[in-house]
Design brief:
Distance between the termini: 55 Å
Shape: elongated
Number of strands: 16
Number of helices: 1
Oligomer: single chain
Largest sheet: 8 strands, mixed
Length: 219
C-alpha cells in the first residue's frame, strides 16, 4: 500500500527529473561546438634559392553561435600553432592572424567583398590589419586581425606593440590558444580563416610568404 507521503515524494522526484531534463535540453541547444581544422602547409623557393617552409598545425575553433543572444552575434575561441623554417639560417618575422567575413566568400584570401585590412596579392598584410578579434561587420564585408600584440620597449625606451614574432637561425614558431573572435552586426552567414604571413630576410632578398588555413563557419 502506497501512502500519501510516498506519492508526494514520487511526484516531487518526477518534477525534479523533468526540470533537469529541461535544463539539459537548453544547455544542449546553446552548447559550444568544437571544430577541428586541417591547418595547412606551404613551401616556397625565393629568387635566391632560399626555401621557406610554413606549417599551421593543431588548429581548432570552439564556436558559440550567439554569445550576444541574437543571430547577429557570433563568438569563437581559436587555437593553433605556426611553424616556420628557412634554409640557410635566414631570419624573419611571423604574423599570424585571421580574416573574418560576413556573407562574403573569403576562400580566395579575404581580399574581396569590401575587405578591410586583408592580406594583399603579394602575401603582405596591408596597413589596415588590426589587433584584437572584436569585429563589427555588415553583409559583404570582411576584415583581418593579428593574433599577437606583444608589448615591448622601442629603441628609445618607450612602450610599443608588435604584431609579430621575430626569429633567427632558420626557424621560429608561434602558438596561440583560445584567441577570441567576437563578431557583431552580421545577420547572415559568417566565416573565418587563419593566415600566417612570414617576412623572410636573407643576405640577398626580403620577401613575404603567406599560408592560408581552411575557411570555417561561425554560424
Amino acid at each position: 500500500m502506497i501512502n500519501r507521503q510516498s506519492m508526494v515524494r514520487a511526484a516531487g522526484f518526477t518534477a525534479a527529473a523533468t526540470m533537469a531534463l529541461g535544463l539539459l535540453s537548453t544547455g544542449a541547444a546553446n552548447a559550444d561546438t568544437v571544430v577541428p581544422l586541417p591547418g595547412g602547409h606551404i613551401t616556397k623557393t625565393l629568387s635566391d634559392g632560399t626555401v621557406v617552409d610554413i606549417s599551421l598545425v593543431g588548429e581548432s575553433a570552439n564556436i558559440n553561435p550567439s554569445m550576444g543572444a541574437t543571430p547577429a552575434h557570433r563568438n569563437a575561441w581559436v587555437s593553433g600553432s605556426a611553424q616556420v623554417s628557412v634554409s640557410g639560417g635566414g631570419s624573419g618575422k611571423i604574423f599570424p592572424g585571421y580574416t573574418v567575413g560576413c556573407q562574403v566568400n573569403i576562400a580566395g584570401g579575404g581580399t574581396t567583398g569590401g575587405a578591410e585590412g586583408a592580406v594583399d596579392d603579394a602575401g603582405e598584410p596591408s596597413a589596415g590589419v588590426s589587433t584584437g578579434g572584436e569585429l563589427s561587420l555588415g553583409p559583404g564585408q570582411s576584415r583581418s586581425f593579428y593574433v599577437l600584440d606583444l608589448e615591448m620597449a622601442d629603441d628609445f625606451g618607450n612602450e610599443s606593440h608588435k604584431t609579430r614574432n621575430a626569429f633567427k637561425g632558420g626557424s621560429g614558431s608561434v602558438t596561440w590558444a583560445d584567441e577570441t573572435i567576437g563578431l557583431s552586426g552580421c545577420g547572415g552567414y559568417a566565416q573565418a580563416r587563419a593566415f600566417v604571413s612570414v617576412e623572410v630576410e636573407t643576405d640577398n632578398v626580403m620577401s613575404w610568404v603567406t599560408l592560408w588555413g581552411a575557411p570555417f563557419s561561425l554560424g
